[in-house]
Amino acid sequence: MTNIGVFDSGLGGLTVLKELIKEKNANYYYLGDSKRAPYGSRSKDEILKFTDEIVEFLEKYDIDQYIIACNTISTIATEYLEEKYQKKFYPITKAGLENASQYEGDFLVLATKATVDSHIYKNGLENEKIEVYEVAAPNLVELIENGKICGDELDENLLNYLEIANKNQIPNIILACTHYPIIKKAIEENLSYEANIINPAENIASKINFKENNKGSINIFMTQVNEKNKMIVDHILDCDYNLELKEI
After folding, report:
1. CA dihedral in degrees (220, 23, 107, 155; nearest 10)?
2. pLDDT score at 49
3. Annotated active-site residue in 110, 111, 143, 177
4. Burial class of residue 203 in the structure, from the number of CB atoms within 10 Å of its CB (0-12 exposed, 13-18 middle, 19+ buried)
5. pLDDT at position 208, please?
6. Which sequence spans correspond to the domains of the chain?
7. Residues of the chain falling short of pLDDT 50
8. Same fold for the domain at 3-91+202-245 and the one at 94-198?
């Protein structure tokens, strides 16, 4: 059975795992570092250190290939990880760029500070006909990790982050952090118009080359487990899974 490692700075990568489970049978080993989330405002050295610790932990499970289910880690650590571990690491940003290229018109990239600072989506999509706006949304990951996936506090933040979208009626919005699909409904409700909401995790299974006929196990490791994030795990995943608290 193929062993797939999936990792993220917290709960957000479960939106990627959800899409993979729909299409690909495998043994999945997911690690979410909720204890140290968010990563988006951390230094490059911190992100590399934390990511290294995550992969060292997952390597115990004889992983065949990895999905980097975090835009922040994808922009900073992909080449480093492939060179060090000599395995395939598929970055969610690659899927995001491929999905976005199917749409016409301007884009808003809603992301963490680290992803915005990398300009990975802007550099990949912008040309003489397309403008790419970038908005760092530093409060959203923390709100989601704390179970605040609806309500006044979330709406107040979203109205601020989506101000430029509402002002310019930007037709395409890229959810360039895997936490954000969890609050997709709230994002839509805080837009004054209809936009294409692009989730980089969609169709990600088609980018991964392996095929298994039998269903495997879903193993989720979190560095912090409480009632709030357990609620969100159940909100995202509609399948049987094993959940364990792990220190890394």
Report:
1. -50
2. 98
3. 177
4. middle
5. 79
6. 3-91+202-245, 94-198
7. none
8. yes
- Residue 23: CB atoms within 10 A of its CB come to 11
pTM of the entire structure? 0.93
**Which class would CATH give 94-198?**
alpha beta
239 carries an active-site annotation: no
Catalytic: which of 70, 204, 208, 237?
Answer: 70
Q: How far apart are CA 104 and CA 85, in angstroms?
A: 38
Whole-angstrom distance, CA of residue 38 vs CA of residue 138: 8
Rounded-to-integer distance, Cα 152 and Cα 30, Å: 31
Q: At what angle do helices 44-58 and 71-85 cross, to 10 degrees?
A: 60
Nearest to 106 by CA among 194, 184, 195, 204: 195
**Overall CATH class of domain 3-91+202-245:** alpha beta
CA angle 21, 65, 34 (to 5 degrees): 65
The pLDDT assigned to 190 comes to: 98
Q: CA–CA separation, 108 vs 217, rounded Å? A: 37
Check residue 207 and report its DSSP letter. G
Helix (H/G/I), strand (E/B), else coil: 135: strand
Q: Does residue 83 come out as left (phi exceeding 0), alpha (psi in the -120 to 50 range) or beta?
A: alpha
Distances from the Cα of 194 to the Cα of 91, 170, 183, 206, 238, angstroms? 28, 9, 16, 27, 28
